[in-house]
Amino acid sequence: MHKKMTISLDESVYDGLHRTVGRRHMSQYIEDLLRPHVLDTALDDGYKAMAADQVRETEAQAWCNALLADMADEAR
């Protein structure tokens, strides 16, 4: 859900923003600039990068399966 807000900008900053990104893209541009400063997404981005690494995921899966096999041999 998006929330609407009103902000005040210096006229020259507004003109530059309008010229650079266009009137219909200002909100998204500002949101993209602010997001990394107000939301802690670094950890999420790291997890996504790790999950996209197929070699690493294959090695991790093999390691987990080996642990499960070791646990099956443990006395209860």
List the helices and strands and how they pair.
Layout: H1 11-21, H2 26-38, H3 42-52, H4 54-72
In short:
The protein has 76 residues and is mainly α. It has two domains: 1-39; 42-72.
How would you describe this structure to a colleague?
- By secondary structure, the chain is an all-alpha fold.
- It has two domains: 1-39; 42-72.
- 71% of the residues lie in helices and 0% in strands.
- It contains four helices and no strands.
- It has helices at 11-21, 26-38, 42-52, 54-72.
- The termini are far apart.
The radius of gyration over CA amounts to 24 Å
Describe the main β-sheet briefly. none
Low-pLDDT residue spans: none
The domain count comes to 2
Category by helix and strand content: mainly alpha
Question: Globular, elongated, flat, extended or rod-shaped: what is the shape?
Answer: rod-shaped
Number of helices: 4
Helix content, binned percent: over 70%
Strand content: under 5%
Give the overall pLDDT as a whole number. 88
End-to-end span in angstroms? 51 Å
Strand/helix succession: HHHH
- Count of distinct strands: 0
